[in-house]
Amino acid sequence: MATTPTVVQETPVGQIKLPVLSLVIAVVLGVLLSVAVVGGAGYYLVHSGKLKLQTATQQAEAAPKAPEKTHAVVLEPLVVNLADSAGGAYLRASITLNIADAKGGPKDEKKAEDAKAGKETDAAVRDTALTVMAQQTSDSLLAADGKDRLKRELKAALAARNPDVKVTDLFFTEFLVQR
C-alpha cells in the first residue's frame, strides 16, 4: 500500500489565524455577564437596605428648612409640691418656652389679639406645667435623665392640652428640688 505523504503547512509565528467570530462572541458574552453580575449585586444591595440611594424626595427632605419664627414666653417661677410619699418635697422651676409664631394676617390686628390671648395662654401653660410637675417625684427628677424626661412630658402635655400653642423648645432657667 502506498501511502501518500501528508503535507503540513507551517504558518509563520506572527500570522496565527484565530476564529474572529468566536472571539467576538466570547467578549460580548463576558461583558454581558459582568454587567448582569454588577447590576444584580446593586439591585440586591439597594433593595436589602444595605445601600441607600438619595432620591429627589429625600433631597427635598434633607434640604435645610427655613427656621420658624418663634418668640420666647418666660413664665414666672413655679413652686409645686412633689408626689413623694413623705409629702415634704417640692420643686421650684422657672421655664422659658419657645413658641412658634402664628402665620398670616396683618401685624397691627394681630398685636391686639396677641395681647389678649397672651394672658389666657400664659394661664393655660402655667396650669399644664403645674399639673405635670405635681405628678413627679423627687427621685425621678434627680435621676440622670430626670430633667430631659420632664421636658418631654411637658412638651407632650402642652401639645395635647393647648393645641394652639406650638412649643418648639422648652428651657429650665431655674430648677430646684427640695426634700
Topology:
Layout lengths: L19 H29 L7 H7 L7 E5 L3 E4 L8 E11 L6 H28 L3 H5 L3 H16 L5 E12 L1
Antiparallel strand pairs: 1-3, 2-3, 3-4
Helix pairs in contact: 3-5
Describe the structure in brief.
The chain has 179 residues and is of the alpha+beta class.
Summarize the structure in words:
- The protein is an alpha+beta fold and 179 residues long.
- It folds into 2 domains: 20-60; 70-178, Band 7 domain (Tetrahydropterin Synthase, Chain A, 2-Layer Sandwich).
- Helix content is 47%, strand content 18%.
- It has 5 helices and 4 strands, in the order ααβββαααβ.
- It has helices at 20-48, 56-62, 107-134, 138-142, 146-161; strands at residues 70-74, 78-81, 90-100, 167-178.
- Strands 1, 2, 3 and 4 form a 4-stranded antiparallel sheet that branches.
- A hairpin with an 8-residue loop joins strand 2 (78-81) and strand 3.
- Helix 3 (107-134) packs across helix 5.
- The protein is rod-shaped.
- The model has no long low-confidence stretch (mean pLDDT 81).
